[in-house]
Amino acid sequence: MTEIEALLLLQNEETSAEILDQLSTDENPFVRARVAAHMNASEKTLVMLSEDETPLVKQFVAEHLSTPTNTLVALSKDSDMLYWVAGNPNTPVELLTKFSKDEHENIRSSVAVNPSTSAATLSILCCDENEDVRAAVAKNVNTPVAVLEKLSKDTAESVQEAVENNPSYSN
């Protein structure tokens, strides 16, 4: 199969898990990354790609909704993967709580928008020193109304705007 044929298959939403599995061993890292991002990629393929040498491939595995929890836990041991693991709704709540204390605001923001983040963690993150983290909390549809009300009075306009756009908030 030519590279063009492979890329055309990867653009097709109906490409089967079996074909994606075959493409997952392609020498081109861009092809493997597209396999990892494809919605029909099987758990088996995602687990195998989670050990790929190319960081971009592992990033797509970390954010894929079909990636098994134990694979996300394994990927979380690589600090370069934390942002993507933190945003995956299948990441265990205990890890999300741990990541919510990370020194990097982009990781805390990723936790803050994750729909699986606990109300308790969102209540803590709503007081984060970083405006982007607070705005991310305000965007999460699972943020408790009391927290949204507090954030509606935030000094940062981006946070107030995020609260106004949250469907869980009614002013």
Number of strands: 0
| Sheet of most strands | none
Radius of gyration, whole Å: 18 Å
What characteristic shape results from the CA principal axes? elongated
List the helices and strands and how they pair.
Elements: H1 3-11, H2 17-23, H3 29-37, H4 43-49, H5 55-63, H6 69-75, H7 82-87, H8 93-99, H9 105-113, H10 119-125, H11 131-139, H12 145-151, H13 157-165
How would you characterize this protein structure?
This protein is mainly α. 60% of the residues lie in helices and 0% in strands. It contains 13 helices and no strands. It has helices spanning 3-11, 17-23, 29-37, 43-49, 55-63, 69-75, 82-87, 93-99, 105-113, 119-125, 131-139, 145-151, 157-165. It starts with a helix and ends in a 6-residue tail after the last helix.
Question: What can be said about this structure in brief?
Answer:
With 171 residues, this protein is mostly helical. It has helices spanning 3-11, 17-23, 29-37, 43-49, 55-63, 69-75, 82-87, 93-99, 105-113, 119-125, 131-139, 145-151, 157-165.
